[in-house]
Specification:
The complex is a heterodimer of chains A (about 110) and B (about 120). Chain A has no helices and 11 strands. Chain A has about 110 residues and is mainly beta. In chain A, the strands form 2 sheets. In chain A, strands 2, 4, 5, 6, 9, 10 and 11 form a 7-stranded mixed beta sheet that branches. In chain B, β7 and β8 form a beta hairpin. The chains are: A mainly beta (about 110), B mainly beta (about 120). At the A-B interface, β4, β5, β9 and β10 of A face β5, β6, β10 and β11 of B.
Chain lengths: ~110, ~120
């Protein structure tokens, strides 16, 4: 089947704007992760969903970051009042119930805040 | 807290040669998983190989193999018969088997395969 998809692939925002990043996981995958990858760095965990429940949001850097997955499928990461330090690639990954160890990643959304 | 260290920011290798990428980690967990992911310039991360900590046998996937030294907390990746398509960023990742299954990544090694 299709892999993890993310949209938009690129987003330019002016400082102070709100943005919404979308993730479509692999069909049937119950777990969904968001990571932030700054330039030249490895991805860093932001938040985790199992179905529609957000079980871990310990990596969200501030209360400007909010994620949801209301129907247990598509997820949206929202960043309010964007700052320049929010510029990064945002990666989404999903896993199946019978192979929770292996994460399948999307292509990412590159966010540039000017 | 767990940490993952990749001490080689960049490496290069001639096509058809063998290269080894290093990774060390720190954890107090007794059971966990370790992974190597490849991230080509298109940025989609692809699983290369994974290792379960309780398995002593080193994992192998075609030209890719690992040297897992649990006591030393070392997990290196060996790529044999390097191909131009192996050019990418390689990330080492750690996942404990309790909790949320989140990955802890290293900072990556940029590998360039030379023709």
């Amino acid at each position: 089947g299709a892999g993890v998809s993310q949209s938009p692939r690129y987003k330019v925002a002016k400082r102070g704007q709100d943005v919404a990043l979308r993730c479509d996981p692999i069909s049937g995958h119950v777990s969904l992760f968001w990571y932030q990858q700054a330039l030249g760095q490895g991805p860093e965990f932001l938040t985790y969903f199992q179905n529609e429940a957000q079980l871990d949001k310990s990596g969200l850097p501030s209360d400007r970051f909010f994620a949801e997955r209301p129907e247990g499928s598509v997820s949206t990461l929202k960043i309010q009042r964007t700052q320049q330090e929010d510029s990064a690639v945002y990666l989404c990954a999903s896993t199946s119930m019978d192979n929770q160890e292996t994460q399948y990643f999307g292509p990412g959304t590159r966010l540039l805040v000017l | 807290a767990q940490t993952v260290t990749q001490s080689q920011p960049e490496m290069s290798v001639q096509e058809a040669e063998t290269v080894t990428l290093s990774c060390t980690y720190d954890t107090s967990e007794s059971n966990y998983y370790l992974f190597w992911y490849k991230q080509p310039p298109s940025r989609q991360m692809i699983l290369v190989i994974r290792q379960e900590a309780y398995k002593q046998q080193n994992a192998t996937e075609n030209r890719f193999s690992v040297n897992f030294q649990k006591a030393a907390k070392s997990f290196s990746l060996k790529i044999s018969d390097s191909q131009l398509g192996d050019t990418a960023m390689y990330f080492c990742a750690f996942m404990k088997t309790s909790g949320t299954y989140k990955y802890i990544f290293g900072t990556g090694t940029r590998l360039k395969v030379l023709a």
